[in-house]
Structure formats: C-alpha cells, structure tokens
Amino acid sequence: MSDQEIVYPAEAIQTRVRELGARLTRDYHGRPLVVIGVLNGAFIFMADLVRAITLDLEIDFVRAASYGAATVSCGTVALTKQVELSLVGKEVLLVEDIVDTGRTLAALLEVIKGRQPNSLKVCALIDKTERREVPLTVDYACFTEAHGFLVGYGLDCAEQFRNLPAIRRIPQPDAPPCP
Ligand code: IMP
Ligand code: MG
Asked: Which of 45, 56, 81, 147 is most buried, by CB atoms within 10 Å?
C-alpha cells in the first residue's frame, strides 16, 4: 500500500475535521443534537468529528448493507442496524464516509425522516459531487475534490485498508455484478 498515491495526508484530514467540528459547534449551539454515523465506513471520521464538536450531543449508528464486498452501488439499501435513540424533535446530523451516486444516502434519509427529527442534515468526509445520480444536498463535507477509488481513514476496499491514517487512491477494483 505504501506505493499508492496519497490524496489527503493525515494532517490535512485532521485540520479539515477540526474546522468542520468548529462550524458544527456554532451551527448547533443550544440545540439537542444527535449525530448518527453510517457503519462501517464513517467510524473513524465520526470518532474524530464528535471530539471536535464542543457541545452536549448524543451518538448512534446505522448500518446499511447495500454492497456486500462490492464497490459499486446496486441501488438497494437494507438496514442491518437501526437507529436506537429517539429522534423525535431533535436535530439530527447523519455522518457518511463517501457520498457517491447518493443512492445509499437517499434511502437512509427516508428511513430517518420517518423518526420525526426536527431537522436532518448530512455531513460527509468526501462528497464525490460529479458522480451523483440521485439529487440530494450534502450540507457539510470535508473534501469535495475526489476522483477514483479511495481507501484509508475508514474507507475500505473489500474491508481492507480502513486503518490507514491517510486517504489514498487505488486502481478501481472490479465489481461483482449486482444481484
Ligand atoms: P452511493 O450509494 O453510490 O452514494 O455509495 C456510497 C458508498 O459507497 C459509500 O458509503 C462507500 O461505502 C462506498 N464508496 C463509494 N466510493 C468509494 C470509494 O472511493 N472508496 C471506498 N468506498 C466507496
Ligand atoms: Mg460505506
């Protein structure tokens, strides 16, 4: 892995996460915030982000199984872990690793809207804006200039490389056909 191109060094990620945390601290001041991470990809970003938000907040996770070990969205999303906190009347921030076609996120937003939050916004580590197939708004993003297939800082290729501190680009993996 050491010969793969670093797209975002660990220090640059930490700087952006701290900036975003400060912005979220201002935006959600005095409001009952629930931060919901999308497993598995968002776990490292989420851990750093919530420590950069200096507010009282609640944390939960959802898990969407849309891909298996594949790398291209098949357009269907099943939740294998549901939100467990009550979201009624609360300000909800959904934290994703990468928004690519937007299909995963669009399906998750529908599920969470059904839990009657007062507001629902999206925060992504990486917003691949030019690949969007479903119209949706990513309210907060660390990085929007992203091309190719990225791994590290929680992002995987077939469950490998999540633990790398920097984000690297690897050759586009072959995707098995959608079921
Ligand atoms: P979407 O439904 O196409 O937006 O898929 C988004 C999901 O695909 C993300 O949550 C990631 O798990 C995965 N994904 C998309 N692009 C990449 C990438 O470059 N590296 C790793 N995972 C990716
Ligand atoms: Mg993912």
From this structure: 45
